[in-house]
Design brief:
The protein is of the alpha/beta class and 478 residues long. 39% of the residues lie in helices and 23% in strands. Belongs to the aldehyde dehydrogenase family.
Length: 478
């Protein structure tokens, strides 16, 4: 069985223990054994990044750009291989896995160009003879904690800007998907980036992630994951005044108005709620449907779900792959029971299903006649479970859409320019979609939400500079 080591200060080092990486589509398929770092090894990685920062932070921006471009080029050249690895360890379908690998490659190439255009300002002073310059400088060591649901794209959109703006990195991938994180690290290790600038430390969040929180040499922490862990990161970072950004939960609404194109609305709802097994923070888990179209929407959604094939992620006929692991499957199934107990009507799916291989397969669960006070309408499930909530009119639908502690993504299906325009302005979310799924975003524009979904600067695009740099104002007397 293949064993995969941590990358620390340019060397591949075995950990204190190993973690077996299992295929959720076929539990007999062990992808490999991946090193698990302890606190001491994590501190060595942080020290290496800290030592490498002074030279890297003021070094050639062309060298940064060349390295990031080389990384992106290799990821794109190997997108099918990397996509298959992702699908094998996380459970996304193969087209989704290849698509994510493509996105990761494009992200590195985008930030290769951004490394050459780190912007500043030169302003006139209010005082005669004085010059004022505003510049952006790197923070220092960045601790990156990535989730399991996008194991190539999310590490890419954190690592690439961190390096582009002159920071050094210690990266912890999620324990469930170390293969994708290791693959990115292996490509980075051959990019020409000096030893210590990028470090891979695989291991438990309570061990590795906690060292990021506690160690004063870590200047910033970029975290994507659960609300509870995000709150823990925030409390620890605030205690020592470290910079941090959080991407956490979502309970995203998709509003469907009476005038919507039914085929467009149902396709957007089904894809947004259930594809990628619903394991997306942008998934449309609340489908808020105006009463005039409500019966037709329920029936059309049920019919479309009947055609959806759940199966092994690598099989070409599969539309939706398995749930990522037993714990997540248990959580999903518990919410199906909760929905029934709360009085919602289960119109499709909700049961565990068997396939040719032993995996965590679940039929997508669609509830009707839900209301916004139910737990299935308020708590993030993070699986293929969605609730349809009736709305009296547009104003009621908007009120329901905004009645949540989260605010990541929000969507509307309508043929009315009036309502689409009003919704874009008044939806309390960081991202708004019109006549398309709430999940699925471009790599060159900001990603992030409001309220309990996100904290700190946006990720992706030029807005990434807000987190990965600090602003300095300099005055010169002529």
């Amino acid at each position: 069985m293949s064993q995969f080591a941590n990358l620390i200060n340019g060397e591949w080092l075995q950990g204190a223990s190993v973690n077996k990486n299992l295929n959720p589509s076929d539990l007999s398929d062990v992808i490999g054994e991946y090193a698990q770092a302890d606190a001491a090894q994590t501190e060595i990685a942080i020290a290496a990044a800290h030592a490498a920062f002074p030279a890297w932070s003021v070094g050639s921006i062309q060298a940064r750009a060349d390295a990031l471009d080389k990384i992106g080029t290799e990821i794109l050249a190997r997108r099918e291989e990397l996509g298959a690895l992702l699908s094998r360890e996380e459970g996304k379908t193969l087209p989704e896995g290849i698509g994510e690998a493509t996105r990761a490659g494009n992200i590195f190439k985008f930030f290769a160009a951004e490394a050459l255009r780190i912007r500043g300002d030169k302003l006139a002073s209010v005082r005669p003879g004085m010059d004022v310059e505003i510049t952006r400088e790197p923070l220092g060591v960045i601790g990156i904690i990535a989730p399991w649901n996008f194991p190539l794209a999310i590490p890419a959109w954190k690592i690439a800007p961190a390096l582009a703006y002159g920071n050094t990195v210690v990266f912890k991938p999620a324990e469930l998907v170390p293969g994708s994180g290791w693959a990115i690290a292996e490509i980075i290790s051959r990019s020409g980036i000096p030893a210590g600038v990028f470090n891979l430390v695989m291991g438990r969040g309570s061990v590795v992630g906690q060292r990021f929180i506690d160690d004063r040499r870590v200047a910033g922490i970029s975290f994507t994951g659960s609300v509870a862990t995000g709150n823990h990161v925030a409390q620890g970072a605030i205690a020592r005044m470290a910079k941090f950004q959080l991407e956490m939960g979502g309970k995203n609404p998709m509003v469907v108005l009476n005038d919507a194109d039914l085929d467009v609305a149902v396709t957007a709802a089904v894809q947004g709620a259930f594809f990628s097994t619903g394991q997306r923070c942008t998934a449309s888990s609340r489908l808020i449907v105006e009463k005039g179209i409500y019966p037709r929407f329920i029936e059309a959604a049920r019919e479309q779900l009947a055609k959806v094939r759940v199966g092994h992620a690598l099989q070409k006929e599969t539309h939706i792959g398995p749930v990522v692991d037993q714990s997540q499957l248990d959580q999903d199934m518990s919410y199906v029971a909760i929905g029934r107990d709360e009085g919602a009507k289960l119109v499709s799916g909700g049961e565990r299903i068997s396939r040719e291989t032993d995996g965590f397969f679940m039929a997508p669960a669609l509830f009707a006649d839900a209301h916004n006070d139910m737990r299935i309408s308020r708590e993030e499930i993070f699986g293929p479970v969605a609730a349809v909530i009736p709305a009296d009119n547009y104003e009621h639908a908007l009120q329901l859409a905004n009645d949540t502690e989260f605010g990541l993504s929000s969507g509307i299906c309508t043929t009315s320019l009036k309502y689409a325009t009003h919704f874009k302005r008044h939806a309390q979310a960081g991202m708004v979609m019109v006549n398309t799924a709430t999940a699925g975003v471009d790599y060159h524009v900001p990603f992030g939400g409001r309220k309990g979904s996100s904290y700190g600067a946006r990720e992706q695009g030029t807005y990434a500079a807000e987190f990965y740099t600090t602003v300095k104002t300099s005055y010169t007397q002529a």
